[in-house]
Amino acid sequence: MIKRIRDVAEDEQYCTKSLANNVIKLNFTTTETYRNLIKYFKENNIFYHTYQLKEERAYRIVVKYLHHSTDTEEIRQKLLDLGHNVRSIVNAQHRITKEPLNLFIVDLEPADNNKDIYNITALQNKIIQIEPPRVNKNNIIQCARCQQYGHTKTYCNKPFVCVKCGGPHNSKECNKRKDIPAKCALCGGSHPANYKGCEHYHNLIKGNNIYRTPPIRTPPLVTNIHDRTTPPHSTPQQRRSYAEVTKSHEHQVEDTATTLKKTFRRIQRAVYTTTPTKQHDIEHAYNADQ
Ligand SMILES: [Zn+2]
Ligand SMILES: [Zn+2]
Ligand SMILES: [Zn+2]
């Protein structure tokens, strides 16, 4: 792999780091080298994913005690008047009931004055509180394209892996019948690959090392290439993580339906944890599909 990179880039334009599972991490000194390499990877079907540049990453904050019916455009304008450039605003919903909460998740364009936003205590006559989002260390982002943890689909160019059946196709195009159990592409268990009771996910949290994700297939993987081309838009994957921010508000609107759903989940979890998991099943599934 490194030999092939040498064909495209000079030695002093990049550095490499070999990680577990045949993954190579690349860092570039010039944008041009990065672009040439991405072009080369695309032409040669080399699978890779990239990360958003740190300086492009939005500064996320949470605005509390603001009525959910408040127009987000109005919030954007008010914050702009106070010197804060908003990239996106989303009204947080209850994770289960989807009811709107009096809480907004705001992504600011990165700037030197980002931290000053915590000094704001009111928007006109509305008393508010601004806080950093709650960080849940047990919540590692998962790619909706290849199902692996540690990156999002916006920056992924790995083969599609289905969240439901583990097959090599886009999850949206899955033909799995409802009566056939799901198959996890990560651990082989009979649950969807995004199930948080997944053995693989738990191992990741315990080890707290995303690079331990075993590759689902074995072609050479290239990872961690800084992406200067993809616009930093909010993605559905990011939106999903907002649910985590709202977790602490669950008790506010919990009703019988919620309690029933929780009980059902507990039962599901019990069923999943008693299902034996076999890594080699995944290999077979792929071979059969190909
Ligand atoms: Zn991916
Ligand atoms: Zn499928
Ligand atoms: Zn699993």
Describe this structure in words.
The structure is a single chain. The chain has 290 residues and is of the alpha+beta class. It has a domain of 77 residues: RRM (RNA recognition motif) domain (Alpha-Beta Plaits, 2-Layer Sandwich). The protein is 27% helix and 19% strand. It has seven helices and ten strands. The strands form three sheets. The chain has a four-stranded mixed beta sheet with strand order 1-2-10-3, covered by helices on one side. The longest helix has 18 residues. It is globular, with a radius of gyration of 22 Å. The site of one zinc ion has 8 residues, from α4.
Parts with pLDDT < 50 across at least 5 consecutive residues: 217-223, 226-260, 267-290
Distance between the termini: 24 Å
> How many β strands by DSSP?
10
What share of the residues does DSSP label as strand, in percent? 15-25%
Largest sheet: 4 strands, mixed
Indicate the CATH topology of one domain: Alpha-Beta Plaits
Secondary structure class reads: alpha+beta
What small molecules does the structure contain? zinc ion
CATH superfamily descriptor of one domain: RRM (RNA recognition motif) domain
Order of helices and strands: HEEHEEHEEEEEHEHHH
